[in-house]
Design brief:
The complex is a heterodimer of chains A (299) and B (336). With 299 residues, chain A is α/β, with parallel strands linked by helices. Chain A is built from 10 helices and 12 strands. In chain A, helix 3 runs parallel beside helix 4 and helix 9 packs antiparallel against helix 10. The longest helix of chain A has 13 residues. The mean pLDDT of chain A is 97. By secondary structure, chain B is an alpha/beta fold. Chain B has 2 domains: 248 residues, Alpha-Beta Barrel (TIM Barrel), CATH 3.20.20.70; 66 residues, no CATH class. Chain B is 34% helix and 22% strand. In chain B, the strands form 3 sheets. Chain B has an 8-stranded parallel β-barrel, surrounded by 6 helices. Chain B has a 3-stranded antiparallel β-sheet with strand order 9-10-11, with no helix packed on it. A two-stranded antiparallel ribbon of chain B has the order 12-13. In chain B, strand 5, helix 5 and strand 6 form a beta-alpha-beta unit. Chain B is globular and about 60 Å long. The model of chain B has no long low-confidence stretch (mean pLDDT 93). Classes of the chains: A alpha/beta (299), B alpha/beta (336). Strand 7 of chain A pairs antiparallel with strand 8 of chain B.
Chain lengths: 299, 336
Amino acid sequence: MKLSLGPLQYYWPRQQTLDFYAAVAAMPVDIVYLGETVCARRHELRLDDWLEIAAQLVAAGKEAVLSTLPLIESESDLKAIRRLIDDGRFGVEANEMGAVHLLAERRVPYVAGPTLNVFNAQTLGLLNEMGARRWVMPPEASRDILAGLQANRPEGLETEVFAYGRVPLAYSARCFTARRFNLQKDTCEFKCIDFPDGMILKTRDGDAFLTVNGIQTQSAKAYNLLMDLPALVASGVDVLRLSPQADGTLEIANTFRAAIDGSLTPGAAWHSLAPWMPSGGCNGFWHARPGLELVENSA
Amino acid sequence: MNSKPIELVCPAGGLPAMKAAVDAGADCVYAGFKDDTNARNFTGLNFDENSLKDGIRYAHDHGVKVLIALNTYPQTENWSRWTAAVDRAADYGVDSVILADIGLMDYAQRRHPQLRLHLSVQGSATNYEAINFYRQRFGIQRAVLPRVLSLAQVEQVVANTDVEIEIFGFGGLCVMVEGRCALSAYATGTSPNCNGACSPGKAVRWEQTPRGMETRLNGILIDRFADGERAGYPTLCKGRFEVENETYYAIEEPASLNTLELLPEIMRMGIRAIKIEGRQRSPAYVGQVTKVWREAIDACRRDADHFLAKGAWMAELNKVSEGQSYTLGAYNRPWK
């Protein structure tokens, strides 16, 4: 079982981001997804910076993949994807059909990202015919949906499952971070940079419910499939995706690696991550339950 | 201006609404079956075999097209329910099916080559490369754009594709990109993508408490209303929440989209169709809104240069708006 580090969802200052990826080189992950996948306005790192980080990670023995935006609205966003594909040195994760189109047209193999809504074997087969070499299950899909897809999976196609982190739940044209500060998106003052793990959205009785992260809305709880590791292994999943957070990413990766290697039991591994899940953990989606639920002893 | 007149596409949650839309001047009506194959899978809504056949006959007798939304994402184990729905729609002689899943598009194109395919808003295609992908691979003839683009961005799409473009003109506003929202799945287990519903009634609880009327969704407090405040349905993105010590409509205020004032611009750009949201609304709503839009489109076609959104039209539309207010939505950039 391989481990991947998903694309950074937050907007960190340039130096913090560079330092983070320098540390990733030594983390026990096999694949690193890079690039801006939330808001086209964020610019602490440019495409060239991401390509440079990718080169460094490849030199450190990782597979580097550049992820595209899940919401492409402008010509400049499309241009960036064309440039990325033309660069050709690294893999690309397509997160909407415009990127799939450009990749398939140029016959470049790619990763079909988690926002492509792959829920059935026919769709998965088509994406594979159009060049997908790996696909990432939508986080809201259950183990039953996965089973249906795995049973019909084309030869050689790898399966990746989002296994740890605050879950990306929704995307909008509208920016909820800017809204909090009564700013418009076009003049947002880049407020995201002050919130390295996003802003917690609480219900009026004080429960941490969601995370506001620019145009993206995430869960407040960390999705954590460690307890379900035996089922993930049994279903033939190739890659588990961990989502970066401001603190603890190294410990989280180490813990997943230890659980996969068998030196920690899934239950013990899950509980050892409690300090990194300040709003608690959940795994409901996997069990076809409301996503925020936690189903214990699920192994 | 485009040579073909813009089409007015109106919602039909049932036969009475479909007839109301036809009578009030719709060019097309759109509807769904009574199950999770469409994105308005609500109790008491939608069409069975008989009502749909009656509806199609009524619409076609009046020269109105019928579009069937099959715009949720089938899963491997229930795949045949969606393909059967495509077959049924084709057999009944509908004018188009509105799809989101590429697997289903592939099926429809192979099995029913004569059937017109529209890309649903649930397909989340926001740029011409995505739309041209669906055109080249699956032969779609029209795409419904998510309600997230500015008018300038819509124009950019129209200029770079042969696919007819349909946009939302009026109705309930999803603040999230359609097809890219799992908030309801997270909170309630009901997924718009897979189950065709959001914030379902079965998860709703209304509770009078000493602090006021509380509305909950699967136990999660969505909002609390003081005495005299109108307590709205707890759609989860329309609740009041606390972020960084401030309690407010953190995601979206209850409001409706209304682009009537933009009609000359919309028609000038060559947008092919304008869609009214609201299959869950009453036949009276459908009739009212269709009538106003019919008049407005006809007035704009007669004389776009002197078109003005009449006060009486806006008043009619405001009466049926959610939250009694309206917004131009993302088509007007400052909204973002």
